[in-house]
Amino acid sequence: MSDQITTEAEKHSAKRGAKSKRPDSGDILNRELPSLVTPTVAAVMSAVIPGLGQMFARRVQRGVILLAGAASVIGMFVWRFRILGERAEVPGWPVFLRALDRRPWFVGFILVALVAIWILSAIDAHRTAQRPSRSGAGAFLAIIAALFVLGWQVSEIDVGTAIQRIPDALPPLARVIWPWEAAVEFEENEVGGTAQILVSPEGMIPPQVDPQPGEPGVTISPRQGTLASQNLDGNAGAIGNVPGTEVTVSGFGFEPSTTTEIRWIDQNGSIFPIRQGRDELIVETGADGTFSVIFTLPFPLIGADPEPSGTIHQVQARQVFTGEATASRALLIIISRMVETIVLGMMATLFGIIFSIPVSFLAARNIMSGSRISMAIYYLVRFTMNVIRSIEPLIWVLIATVWVGLGPFAGIIALTMHSIAALSKLYSEAIEGIDPGPIEAIQATGANRLQTIAYAIIPQMISPFVSFSIYRWDINVRMSTVIGLVGGGGVGFILVQYVRLLQYRQAGIAVWFIAITVALLDYVSAEIRNKLA
Amino acid sequence: MLEVKNLTKVYDDGTVALRNVSFTVDDGEFLVVIGLSGSGKSTLLRCINRLVEPTDGSIIWDGQDVTAADPPDLRNIRRKIGMIFQHFNLVKRSSVLTNVLSGRLGYVTPWASLLNRFPAADREAAAKALERVGLTEQTRKRASELSGGQQQRVGIARALMQEPSIILADEPVASLDPVLAHSILGNLERLNQEDDITIICSLHYLDLVQRYATRVIGLRDGELVYEGTRDEIRSMTDDQFKQIYGEEAERITAGSIGGEA
Predict the structure, then answer these.
(1) Within 13 Å of residue A382, how many CA atoms lie on the same side as its CB?
(2) Are residues B152 and B186 in the same domain?
(3) What is the tally of structural domains in chain B?
(4) Are residues B180 and B195 in the same domain?
(5) For residue A458, what pLDDT is reported?
């Protein structure tokens, strides 16, 4: 059987060879390793198990990839299917129907793709068994398409919801994008005066107090009255509210033509606005800075009826002026946390540099290649550093918070660990890349060992060392904002709190500060590194 | 006078770079060492100031055994032997001035030099050396900013700062184009004639050898295969030159000679 194929292929290639003298390595391979089965058998095999025909056509790798691809499509499909078909009463057919009902497009597409995979794989097997060079990529493309559709479904991509919720997301987003209203607060300056009134039937009527010179004064008349109360038994008139005494409050020496609040202060010092009907009592001073208003005494907050002897309440009139704008508390907190973040990055970089300089010499091949022992140290150090580096700083924070608790110190430990590993690799590469020529030249002048280090080695190392260190600082500050999110201190820490409290403006300020700092640092670090290069 | 006696160098990996090489160099000579790449020229030059430790043999310079010198003596010997290199070997990140001043490292107080402090006399000497090689304008520049020819002249100025009796030049023009090659070798020739500095220089191109050498030695596979005077080298034909270089290298050397001409 296989002999026949070989001859066929030979004849075919001979014909082609006669037409064009191009050597075809595919034909030569084919001649050396003929298919074990005929194209038809291969096609049938692959129509049963995708890839089987290819394997028998001596294209084992191709067959295995096809089989693995088809198997993973089926595997994922069954998994998603069971999730979609959940709560179907009976397993089997109803699961399928329920899944089809819930996601018709998805289930339909995958079914079509599966059929395509089987058919294309059979066609591919036929062609491969004929001539391997002729086989195409159709079956693989079908598998890839099916895997991506499955991926779309597995990762719960939901474009509809994303678009639908845009209106809801815009207001908080706008607050994050332009948060500066929360960055300022205004001072309140107030001027005002009080007058006292006796609200119990007995007791001393308080004297009229004259104001300090230059300060506004308030008078009340009469200086004794009763508070509003409720008549509950109906003996003394209709059941209902009994209004308090009508009083006249006058003020003088106030800012002219300005809104003035009238407020009540009870015997305990509690302040509350006086309501006349629904509105709070607010008057406007005249051009001469005086006002006069008549109102009835309010209900007591808590109190006896009548009030105990000698209970004195006060009426206050005050004008509030908006003073100078000051930085809001949130802004100050964010700035201090931002400074903390930058310092955190600096400290971590400093510790990273201190530890990684000695380590980098141990990890430099040209320095450690002297003996077997030093090479063993070299490999050990390299391995350890690779392990430390492969652990993300976020994980290091989690470890460090267990160790030293939440806060910037945990962040410093995390970033230091990562910096040591990253810097010692970069430093050791700088040491390995040193040019031996200048060392030779300086030695040739009669310089001693220290002079050689100072004149030939250090000048070559300074620039990469400084450059890598600054780059690392840049990375560390950027990372420390993220590290705060998981408890490592700094601005990230406070950002998470603001987001959780839905204080989007404050969160927005933090985001702005992070962005500005990172951009500045990026620029500065690039500039310095350019200068050094 | 420099006497090289039975010099042998075997590297740790077993490569024999020099086999029993002996020759003498009189004061004031412009000795050119020729030979194929890997024939041992660089090793020979580096053995003279012991940048490479010889395995066997001795080097006697004015009656002093260089090969037996202890480290302090060796530094004193080295400071009288200037050296320039194919790749210039300047500290690229340092200024031209610092590179030139580093030629004084064998003379100055070590601790002061670590702080980059050099005596005023040395600074003046550096300015003069730079003037001599025509680089006064470049004093403050970084070595890396200079062209190849300029860098090699800085190398010469650095060697000059050592007030050397000998200058070793290892392929000083191999990284430069032919015009610059003449400029650099002209500089060396002037030092040779005006300052009476002995030059030991390895070169590749026959016409350069004929133009500058007062004496020539040839190396092949670490062995001394040729010694010739100025007149002998001037009358040398390409064929004889090729014999030193070995038949297998015929095409390469012929090509490079052709390219040079």
Answers:
(1) 12
(2) no
(3) 2
(4) yes
(5) 85
Q: Which of residues 33-62 of B touch A (CB under 8 A)?
A: 49, 51
Is A445 an interface residue toward B (CB < 8 Å)?
A: yes
Q: Residues B170, B76: one domain? A: yes
Q: Which residues of B touch A446 (CB under 8 A)?
A: 75-79, 105-107, 162
**Count of A–B CB contacts within 8 Å?**
82
Give me the domains of chain A, ranges plus CATH numbers. Answer: 35-157 (no CATH), 184-326 (no CATH), 329-532 (1.10.3720.10)
- Report DSSP letters for A410-436, one per residue: HHHHHHHHHHHHHHHHHHHHHHHT--H
Assign A306 a pLDDT band (cuts: 50, 70, 90). Answer: low
What letter represents residue B18's amino acid?
L
Q: Residue B43 is part of a domain; what is its CATH number?
A: 3.40.50.300
Terminal-to-terminal C-alpha distance of chain A: 69
Residue carrying structure tokens 């290649």: A369
Q: Where is the domain boundary, B133, B148, B163?
A: B163
A440 at interface of B, judged by CB pairs closer than 8 A: yes
- State which residue of chain A sits closest to B82, comparing Cα positions: A445
Average pLDDT over residues A281-299: 86
The secondary structure element, H or E, covering residue A218 is strand A217-221
- ipTM of the complex as predicted: 0.90
Tell whether B153 and B172 lie within a shared domain: no
Is B127 found in the same domain as B10? no
Q: For residues A501 and A503, give the distance between their C-alpha atoms in angstroms, rounded to a whole number.
A: 5
Look at residues B163, B197, B226 and tell me which one is the last residue of a structural domain. Answer: B163
* Containing structural domain, residue B57: 1-80+164-261
**pLDDT, greater one: A370 or A96:** A96
> pLDDT by residue (tens digit) across B211-255?
899 999 999 889 998 888 888 888 877 777 777 776 554 433 433
Average pLDDT, chain A: 83
Q: Nearest by CB to A455, which of B75, B88, B102? A: B102
A230 CB near a chain B CB, below 8 Å?
A: no
Amino acid code (one letter) for A462: I
**Between vectors from CA B169 to CA B91 and to CA B86, what angle results, nearest 5°?**
50
Q: Which residues of B touch A456 (CB under 8 A)?
A: 91
- Which residue from B minimizes the CA distance to A449? B110
- Average pLDDT estimate for A312-341: 88
Is B30 near chain A, with CB under 8 Å? no
